[in-house]
Amino acid sequence: MKSSVYNILKARFLVNEDASKSWKFIVFLIVLAMLMINNIHRYEKKVFRTVELTKEVKEYRSEFVDRRSELMKLKMESTISEKMEKRGIVPSTVPPKKIKVVTQTNN
Predict the structure, then answer these.
(1) Which residue intervals of 1-107 are DSSP H helices?
(2) Is the dihedral of CA 23, 29, 32, 37 positive or negative?
(3) What percent of the chain has pLDDT over 90?
(4) For site-directed labelling of 32, which of 7, 79, 92, 97 has its Cα 20 to 30 A away?
């Protein structure tokens, strides 16, 4: 047991007669490790992008809510009459009247 561990530490399995099998396996492990590193890198990139897009959606949603509340405030009658008073236009004190148009048909 001690000699086999010693042989592994000295890397004698890489220079033996069966070294080609060992080298093939080592190259396979290196390629596999590189593929795993690449996949992890791509996964992390996607996670960061997802987080970034989520933050952006939250910002746009809050901006939308702010704009909608501003629009509702601007559409209120009190706000409109306030702005019109500054220009000298005041609301009418006389209520509107309906005008009926009667058309005559020639039979």
Answers:
(1) 2-9, 19-75, 77-86
(2) negative
(3) 44
(4) 7
Specify the 3-state DSSP secondary structure of 35.
helix
Region for residue 88 given its phi and psi (left: phi exceeds 0; alpha: psi -120 to 50; beta: otherwise): left
d(CA 64, CA 30): 51
| pLDDT, position 103 | 86
Summarised one tens digit per residue, pLDDT across range 35-82 is 999 999 999 999 999 999 999 999 999 999 999 999 999 899 888 888
Using CB atoms within 10 A of its CB, is residue 53 exposed (0-12), middle (13-18) or buried (19+)? exposed
HSE toward the beta carbon, residue 31, CA cutoff 13 A: 6
